[in-house]
Amino acid sequence: MRLLIAMMKHETNTFSPVPTPLARFGHGPGPLYGEAAIRAYRGTGSGLGAYLDLAEREGADVVLPIAAGAPPSRPVEDAAFEHMAGTICDAVGKGGFDGIMLDLHGAMVTESFEDGEGELLRRIRAIDSDTPIAVSLDMHANLYDAIIDNATVVTGYRTYPHIDTYDTAKRAGEILLRAIRGEIRPVMAWGNVPMLPHVMRCGPAWKLFAAIASSIVRIGASGSYSAMTAVAPCWAASSVSPNTQAMACWWCITSVGNIGSSCRLAPVLPSPGTSAPVRTV
Length: 281
Prior knowledge:
Elements: E1 2-12, H1 34-41, H2 47-58, E2 61-63, E3 67-73, H3 78-93, E4 99-104, H4 116-127, E5 133-137, H5 145-149, E6 153-156, H6 165-180, E7 187-195, H7 205-221, E8 225-231, E9 247-255, E10 279-280
Parallel strand pairs: 1-2, 1-3, 1-4, 4-5, 5-6
Antiparallel strand pairs: 7-9, 7-10, 8-9
């Protein structure tokens, strides 16, 4: 088995005056590449750490073209995005992969693209239309059509503070590996519910999100589904999360039942008559 693993993460604040050049993506001069990235993240509690552990368990050959992550700041400079996305796509273009595992954020805005993650995935799919792709996201993500349409499975953090980065990527990776082995054919359904929540762990909305988190865990307990919810950050201003106090609570549920079994998402989707749009992939 041969796996491509990569990280490209940024929670964009479109109101921030702080620049986001390529040098901001790292713990020093910028991103890490290849073996240096593998050495830095192997054995860690990060999303990349989880992917690398799964690859080692499977005895897979790993190609890690880039590991890039930056703290929140203004939209990512085009040159930085083109370098990161280009490095990943160049590796994809060499072919020969059984699966692709991506550790992304979900709220990257660039100087030219409102949905940085979706643009990356769109480019990957233009090169390779068949290889399954696992994506792990932050809880504070904006879900777009391009993210879901071009991925095989999408998972997201369930905790704030985020203490489940490893577990989130592990869920995505495990589903991907089962799909590679032909055990399952993942199907995703997703949508959003207009809300006025606070994006952090405070205020009266916290009890609501605690209840939602419990439901997400319960949905996944059967092993037939993997579920996530995300509270879109209003500072990553976009057409799906505008510059207002109004935000969206996104959800994505992946059916992971065995091939040949009855895998239906209806029991865990919003009731008929609700305002929440439901989209399936």
